[in-house]
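Structure in, sequence out. Go:
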């Protein structure tokens, strides 16, 4: 199968910071290069003793990202994309002998620079040429056909990803369930805000944290960008989201009626909306993220953020996080309360 490789351009200083905050990262293209942000080794684990924490706390809500935080999902998404490329015979460039295949090193960089599956494909195809496929024998040339191609591939990929999650081979990251239960048990508000497709996030949460915890969330938001065309795609193997929605339990289905946001991280809208829905001030929310994209979104919403990094994000610049952890197995609620209180006091 055809594979891709990646050579990142280097930037520094203010220019890199500006690039990291620009969305959707398409302004300054360099052929076959993923738009870059400044990378540094993640800060060491911050250890905080809960013994010094007062009884009261300024923490009102803990907000989890999903992919990379609740589960390590990078390779699962990559597998689903490559399966979709093979299913539709996506060849990019069009003259390639084999279907497109994103290798692990390339996808690590791609998913850490560009949030959302459709923006990833739009950027990649824009840089390397729109592909030939079973959907369009010749590369699409109009905007509507390009959007149709991306929509069909993304729908199929989403269903494939859900099949992988439902297989029973995927588990939540260490410490996630324990911390969630601590938060709810202490009477604090708990939320999940994900930039992934809403139906796939619901599938992840139902299977990984369980229906009881999912239904107990005080807020659940995902990004559900609208399509330019309302026409249904002809691909018969793509299951609609409405078909998936009907499989939810009545209580979990109520989450589907909540407001979604249309802008991907690092845009802060999803976290600003969460604070509004939770009825709390942004400064009293603490976000758990795994990447610099999520960190930028949290900071843009006026929220403090802790990082639980993955192997693919460990080298990113997490200077603006108030703590970094390899996972949440040794993180307790009292630790997070103390961290946030110190952050608010020192300003």
């Amino acid at each position: 199968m055809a594979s891709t490789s990646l050579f990142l351009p280097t930037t520094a200083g203010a220019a890199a910071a500006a690039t990291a905050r620009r969305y959707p990262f398409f302004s300054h293209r360099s052929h076959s290069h993923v738009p870059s942000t400044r990378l540094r080794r993640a800060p060491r684990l911050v250890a905080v003793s809960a013994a010094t924490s007062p009884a009261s706390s300024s923490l009102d809500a803990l907000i989890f990202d999903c992919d990379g935080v609740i589960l390590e999902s990078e390779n699962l998404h990559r597998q689903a994309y490559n399966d979709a490329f093979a299913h539709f015979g996506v060849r990019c460039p069009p003259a390639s002998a084999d279907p497109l295949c994103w290798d692990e090193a390339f996808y690590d960089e791609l998913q850490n620079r560009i949030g959302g599956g459709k923006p990833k494909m739009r950027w990649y195809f824009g840089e390397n040429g729109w592909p030939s496929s079973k959907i369009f024998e010749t590369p699409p040339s109009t905007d509507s056909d390009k959007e149709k191609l991306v929509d069909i591939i993304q729908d199929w990929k989403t269903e494939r990803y859900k099949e992988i999650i439902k297989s029973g081979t995927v588990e939540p990251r260490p410490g996630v369930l324990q911390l969630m239960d601590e938060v709810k048990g202490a009477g604090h508000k708990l939320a999940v805000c994900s930039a992934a497709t809403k139906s796939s996030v619901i599938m992840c949460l139902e299977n990984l944290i369980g229906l009881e915890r999912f239904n107990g969330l005080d807020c659940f938001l995902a990004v559900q960008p609208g399509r330019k065309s309302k026409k249904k795609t002809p691909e018969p193997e793509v299951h609609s989201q409405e078909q998936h929605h009907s499989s939810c339990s009545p209580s979990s289905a109520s989450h589907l009626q909540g407001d979604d946001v249309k802008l991907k991280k690092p845009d802060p809208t999803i976290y600003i909306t969460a604070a509004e829905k939770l009825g709390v001030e942004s400064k009293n929310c603490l976000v758990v993220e795994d990447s610099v994209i999520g960190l930028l979104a949290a900071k843009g919403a006026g929220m403090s953020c802790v990082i639980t990094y993955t192997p693919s994000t460990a080298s990113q610049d997490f200077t603006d996080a108030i703590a970094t952890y390899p996972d949440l197995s040794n993180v307790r609620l009292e630790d997070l309360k103390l961290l946030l209180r110190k952050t608010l006091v020192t300003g």
